[in-house]
Amino acid sequence: MMNSPEQDTIPAINAVLNNVAKIVSDRGETHGDFREVFELTAQLWSVYLGMPVSPQQVCALNSLQKLSRDQVSDTAHRDNFMDVAGYAAIGVALQSDR
Asked: Would you place residue 24 in the very low, low, confident or very high pLDDT band (cuts 50, 70, 90)?
């Protein structure tokens, strides 16, 4: 019995997500706990913008920046989408903390 194209893709997706998880973990060791970093960033952006910004919004806005970079670049950079996946994962974790 042959696998469907979707079934063949699942291991590749899992590999990407595992790599993203490793990157997020590695960054925690070098950049500090993501909860603290995104909370502080939200506070700083809130002061700068004069309006409330949540840590989840920081994730969304960082993702948009990565997507913008991908759109204006002449060459595809895999890390832009890896970073978006990382920001999405962090956003989910932050929502789970609430």
From this structure: very high
